[in-house]
Design brief:
The structure holds 2 protein chains of 2 kinds.
Chain A: H1 2-22, E1 40-43, E2 65-69, H2 85-94, E3 99-103, E4 108-113, E5 121-122, E6 129-133, H3 148-156, H4 169-175, H5 180-183, E7 199-203, E8 206-210, H6 218-221, E9 250-256, E10 260-265, E11 283-287, H7 292-301, E12 309-310, H8 319-323, E13 332-345, H9 353-362, H10 365-372, E14 378-380, H11 406-413, E15 419-425, H12 428-442, E16 447-453, H13 458-462, E17 471-477, H14 487-491, H15 510-520, H16 525-543, E18 546-557, E19 562-563, E20 566-567, E21 574-575, E22 580-581
Helix pairs in contact in A: 9-11, 10-12, 15-16
Chain B: H1 3-11, H2 16-19, H3 29-39, H4 41-58, H5 60-67, H6 108-144, H7 146-161, H8 164-179, H9 188-218, H10 222-229, H11 234-242, H12 247-270, H13 282-289, H14 297-325
Helix pairs in contact in B: 3-14, 4-6, 4-14, 5-6, 6-7, 6-9, 6-12, 6-14, 7-9, 8-9, 9-12, 10-11, 12-13, 12-14, 13-14
Classes of the chains: A alpha+beta, B mainly alpha.
Family (chain B): Belongs to the binding-protein-dependent transport system permease family.
Subcellular location (chain B): Cell membrane
Membrane topology (chain B): Multi-pass membrane protein
Chain lengths: ~575, ~325
């Protein structure tokens, strides 16, 4: 009996090893495309761009049920509380925002009006007063018309500490303080019927926002779910999360937490008002609670309803087997996302510019990307801005090549061997990545000590001003594709506080700070975009405040009968608005 | 186990040609046990493997020197763009006998050799310390009885009730923080010592209970009463009279504790609360490689197979030692 079991086990092992022995692993050569050089587009100046309907997709037909397979529930369905990119991708199906990006996928992003007739009017030309006119004839799922008051109420209800989870820019700008509920708290009974400060309903179709300071990026910010119309009578507070009222092409007809969400056609949606949504399938069926590895295997297997299915994240360990499977190559998405990874240099500790520059010369990005799991998951990055930023200019201030240039780094160090501490999370992946970075830097003469700290508190720890480490890696994604939502957030030294910092390199330079203020007040978005790109290059060349590592990539496989799925340069995940079924 | 061998061996306890001249020579129990062990083929095979792994672990730097690759060296150029080793069987080649790790491209054989070193160091130290502690506590509790037995019994019960994994999870970072500043990486040796301490704190209770039971029955034996009547002190009775008769069970618990600690260390590594990078560790390798099972099965097979072989041979060897020392326990 025992011997027979041993034989079975032995045979099984031989078979598994044997199977892998049959295939020779080769570099399949289709390594990721180099990063895009520039991102075109900007804010639309022509109201015609904001008109519907969205141009037909060749060969797309209506009908069918599309399936979305996922492990985790979406954190929130209430538009005001959404911040996760996958939730917002689903949100595009059942709510509309004031402005939206026409994302053509091929390096072209154009901000247009969605609910609004255009991208908004800077009334006095000082970026302090913004007026939005709402398109006529937009209806909720019950047939009542969306009015300016609903937009005003949509923003106002977000001044409530119970309705958190979503982005907070708009409330902070209106209240002119990060503690916006101290200025106006919609949860208080006496404020129930008031509007938040700065919001005025001019007439049924016009709403006005007054800010105390200049905010030229308001049109971009309204692409996030601020001011998604909410009918006041149907606002159930925290319970609105369970049954949000639709303004988009679909309405939620069934929602079982952790299990499934069903979206069916909203007959009151008029395609002629909508510049981006198509709504080809009759139904979207979100199936939740399926392990990511299982989702991946089901999509590879492509059986039954799974042929009409897609997902927004696959199991990274299966990437290489998908990449080497020729049969799957026509149903794969491999695209860059707005997410970026930097190795931060703690500028309070590493004060010598030469050391910071030497780190940039020495970094072995090839080894780092391999430690992530290969070039389907990351592209070498040398800039501070993501290539998906409008106005982006590619440059490499320290062109050490994919594996770095230790000789050049040694020259800069002039025989010194700086001892630096690289802190990383104690999870196995972060440990592996840290080893890859350490090995590359030590070739250039650095002496790197790896310190593992608990992964769940890692971001809090590096966000403490007096953290004891020299180097640490973390990621960042801009909320909208403009330099303003990356550079000042990460490198404005005036924002440094004792804890919860976003300026992880603790970089502070008065000239740079002044430049931030200057560009932020530029009313011309095209000029601002150019200025951000120039500042990006200046920061890296003159200060080398960090080591940019990679631009994150999304790698997905989807069902064989799904069409129109594309990676959104704005969301940083796949967008569902063009999906059609074959 | 080999039932066929057992019967033949009991009929001819020693080799036939050795029977005649030694017919009237008296043999110590140790010699008898050794003869039984030598006749057990499984035991001998396991002993050779165990001996070889111990040597490999002890002389890992020599192996690395002879093999020409250090465990920290990364061969990223031998990986594809998807970070999988190029070639057959996970990058198997003349330079890399067991292939490479995906992602970092380190040599798998050197990782395993140094991983064995880590595993065995921790397992042996923990087994020795916990056995010594267990024996002392067991003998004292069993012989003295009364309140001493009660107190030790309470401690044993408390430790058995304490969940080991959760304790290890909480204790490891706390011990580290007490010794090192946040800018220092703990030396690999320190991590190992911490693990050994945690294992010892929990590992001695089994041995203590076993030894206590044995002592309870032994202390009523005539020779102990005789020693007592002759005026021997407690220490003399404990260590000169009782302990020699306890060697068999102690040896058995020790030999079974080693594979137990190897598995436990692997489990902690798997749960990522054990040894961290860059010290090679079998448990952590297994947890990392399980994700790569479909893309690079060798990456999983090598450390998993090594750990399997290590635990299996140590266990079989432990079993054989028990059989040799006390044939009555054989089923």
């Amino acid at each position: 009996m025992r011997r027979r079991f041993a034989m079975v086990a032995l045979t099984a092992m031989t078979v598994v090893v044997g199977m892998s022995a049959c295939t020779k692993v080769e570099d399949n050569g289709n390594s990721a495309t180099p990063s895009k050089s520039t991102q075109e587009g900007g804010i639309s100046k022509d109201p015609a761009d904001s008109k519907g309907p969205a141009p037909e997709i060749a060969g797309a037909k209506k009908g069918g049920t599309a399936y979305i397979l996922r492990r985790n529930d979406f954190s929130h369905l209430d538009p005001s509380r959404q911040y996760s990119v996958t939730a917002m991708a689903l949100g595009q199906l059942y709510y509309r925002t004031l402005t939206t990006f026409k994302d053509l996928g091929n390096n072209k992003l154009l901000l247009v009006g969605d609910l609004a007739e255009d991208t908004g009017k800077d009334v006095k030309g000082d970026c302090k007063t913004w007026e939005y006119k709402i398109k006529k004839g937009i209806k909720y799922e019950d047939g009542t018309e969306v009015k300016a008051a609903d937009i005003a109420y949509g923003v106002t209800r977000m001044f409530n500490d119970a309705l958190v989870g979503g982005p907070t820019y708009m409330m902070e700008w209106l209240a002119d303080t990060p503690q916006y509920t101290s200025v106006f708290d919609h949860a208080k009974p006496e404020n129930k019927d008031k509007l938040a400060p700065g919001i005025t309903v001019v007439d049924d179709y016009t709403v006005k926002f007054d800010f105390k300071k200049a905010h030229c990026e308001v049109p971009y910010a309204f692409n996030l779910p601020f001011g998604v119309p909410v009918p006041k009578a149907k606002d159930t507070g925290t319970n609105y999360d369970l049954a949000p009222v639709s303004t988009g092409p679909y309405k939620i007809t069934k929602f079982t937490k952790g299990s499934e969400i069903i979206l069916e056609r909203n007959t009151n949606w008029d395609p002629n008002t909508d510049p981006i949504r198509h709504a080809y399938p009759d139904k979207f069926h979100v199936k939740l609670g399926i392990a990511t590895a299982t989702v991946t295997q089901r999509l590879i297997a492509d059986v039954g309803d799974d042929q009409f299915a897609f997902t927004s994240g696959i199991d990274p360990a299966q990437v290489s087997s998908i990449a080497s499977n020729a049969a799957l190559q026509n149903r794969i998405i491999s695209e860059i996302t707005p997410f970026m990874f930097y190795m931060w240099i703690n500028n309070q500790r590493v004060k010598d510019l030469k050391v910071r520059q030497a780190l940039n010369w020495a970094i072995d990005r090839d080894a780092y990307i391999k430690s992530l799991g290969g070039d389907k998951l990351g592209t070498p990055g040398t800039t501070l801005l993501s290539p998906l930023t409008i106005g982006y200019e590619a440059y490499d201030a320290y062109p050490g090549g994919p594996t770095g240039n230790p000789t050049k780094a040694k020259e800069l160090l002039g025989g010194a061997t700086p001892e630096l501490v690289l802190a990383h999370g104690d999870d196995p992946d972060a440990q592996t990545q840290a080893v890859a970075i350490k090995t590359g830097l030590e070739k250039a003469g650095f002496k790197i000590t790896l310190v593992a700290t608990p992964a769940d508190s890692f971001l809090d720890k590096i966000g403490e001003k007096n953290n004891p480490w020299d180097l640490y890696v973390s990621g960042w994604a801009a909320d909208w594709p403009s330099g303003a939502s990356t550079l000042p957030v990460l490198w404005d030294g005036r924002t440094i506080k004792d804890a919860n910092n976003q300026d992880y390199p603790y970089f502070n330079n008065d000239d740079v700070n002044k430049e931030f203020d200057r560009i932020n007040a530029l009313p011309d978005s095209a000029a601002a975009a150019k200025a951000w790109a120039a500042l990006d290059k200046k920061l890296m060349t003159e200060f080398a405040p960090c080591v940019p590592l990679t631009f994150d990539r999304d790698y997905l496989v989807y069902g064989s009968k799904v069409g129109g799925l594309f990676e959104s340069d704005v969301l940083g995940t796949v967008a569902f608005v063009n999906v059609h079924l074959k | 186990m080999t039932a066929q061998l057992t019967t033949t061996e009991e009929i001819h306890p020693v080799e036939p040609d050795a029977v005649l001249p030694r017919k009237f020579v008296g043999r110590s129990p140790g010699q008898i046990a050794w003869a039984r062990l030598k006749a057990d083929r499984t035991a001998m095979v396991c002993m050779v493997i165990v001996g070889a792994t111990i040597l490999v672990g002890m002389f890992a730097p020599v192996v690395s020197w002879l093999y020409g690759v250090s465990p920290d060296e990364t061969f990223t150029s031998l990986l594809t763009g998807d970070a999988v080793p190029k070639g057959y069987l996970g990058g198997l080649s003349g330079d890399h006998w067991l292939g490479l790790e995906p992602r970092l491209g380190r040599d798998l054989m050197m990782q395993v050799v140094y991983g064995i070193r880590t595993s065995l160091t921790i397992a042996f130290l923990a087994a020795i310390l916990s056995t010594v502690l267990g024996v002392v506590m067991g003998v004292v509790a069993g012989y003295l009885g009364g309140w001493v037995d009660n107190v030790i019994g309470w401690i044993v019960d408390m430790l058995l009730a304490l969940p080991f994994i959760i304790f290890a999870l909480a204790a490891m970072p706390a011990i580290q923080a007490a010794v090192y500043t946040p800018r220092e990486a703990p030396s690999p040796f320190f991590k190992m010592v911490t693990l050994v301490i945690v294992f010892t704190v929990f590992g001695w209770v089994g041995t203590a209970r076993l030894v206590r039971g044995q002592v309870l029955s032994l202390r009523e034996k005539e020779y102990v009463e005789a020693a007592r009547a002759a005026g021997a002190g407690t220490m003399h009775i404990l260590f000169k009279q009782l302990l020699p008769n306890l060697w068999a069970p102690i040896l058995v618990t020790f030999s079974l504790a080693v594979p137990g600690f190897i598995t436990a260390e692997g489990a902690l590594g798997f749960l990522t609360i054990g040894i961290v990078e860059p010290t090679p560790d079998l448990g952590r390798m297994i947890s990392q490689s399980s994700n790569w099972l479909s893309a690079d099965p060798m990456y999983f097979m090598v450390p998993a197979g090594t750990l399997f072989l290590l635990v299996l041979t140590f266990n079989l060897f432990g079993d054989a030692v028990r059989d040799a020392l006390d044939p009555k326990t054989r089923r």
